[in-house]
Amino acid sequence: MRTPCLLLLSLLCYGGAEAQTHSDEYGILSVDAGTFFARRPGRDVTATFPYTVTSFASGTRSDETFNGEVRGKFTSPAYLVGLNLGYVWKRNNFNGGGGLYRSDGGDNGYYVKGGYGYSIPLGGLVLKPSVDFYYLMGKNKMGTIDNSQKEISLLGYKAYSQYTLEDDDGNDVTYDADHLDVNYRRFSLLANPKVVLSTRPLGRLVVGLEVGWFVQLHQRCDLQLEQTNHDSPATYTVGKVRVDKNGSLGGAFAAINIGVRL
Question: Backbone dihedral region of 170: left (phi > 0), alpha (psi from -120 to 50 degrees) or beta?
């Protein structure tokens, strides 16, 4: 953190000497990079259940058992990087954005965020008590089942040998199902009270540091049964099965953002 702090101190000296008057209303597009330290990042997950396979090639039917796991992926710290669009009106700051996150162990996914802050001028800097809300969506593959020319019955669902989706033009497109992936998904809603220390707009440049705390408000976990095709990124979710919650992503948070005034 030493380098960002020195940068802010130099910008403070420059900003305090600046005689330019800035508008009370403007937008900011920034790149955000942060780290959070979940106190209970989660436990290893295993899944075992029976399923039935009917082969169209051989005409046979067999009973099988799926064994899958996600091991060693839920660790702390984890890292965030994304884009953020802010709107400043007088002392009010509104923002929204999204990006990617990943832990050292390999748990990864996407996030979206939005929030509000209030500006308190401090010479060449601005102190902003703020609160953001993050929604993290993680997905890890537990295992896969051969679905080519087969019908699979599992967990109250049927995965047929083909699936049909609608393309961008509204036409139905049918795909051959090559595999049925069993994915473990975790969705977490987090509140992020924090303090942001940023420069005033220096020309078009804005730099900020954030420190705060993640508070987990809600979590949902499930097993996703997802059909895939080798030749296309189009997938189909056959079904979802709710499972127990796993850990909590609450913990300390810090970030740096570098943006341009629009």
Answer: left
Per-residue pLDDT tens over the stretch 47-65? 999 999 999 988 899 999 9
Strands 179-199 and 125-146, bridge-based pairing? antiparallel
* End-to-end Cα distance, the chain: 27
Looking at residue 24, what is its pLDDT? 81
Determine if the peptide bond prior to 50 is cis (ω within 30°). no
Report H helices in the chain: 2-17
Residue 53: strand, helix, or coil: strand
CA-based max dimension of the chain? 82
Instruction: Tell me, yes or no, if the pTM score tops 0.85.
Output: yes
Provide the sign of the torsion angle of the four alpha carbons 240, 244, 249, 250, taken in this order: positive
Dihedral of the CA atoms 173, 179, 182, 184 (nearest 10)?
-70
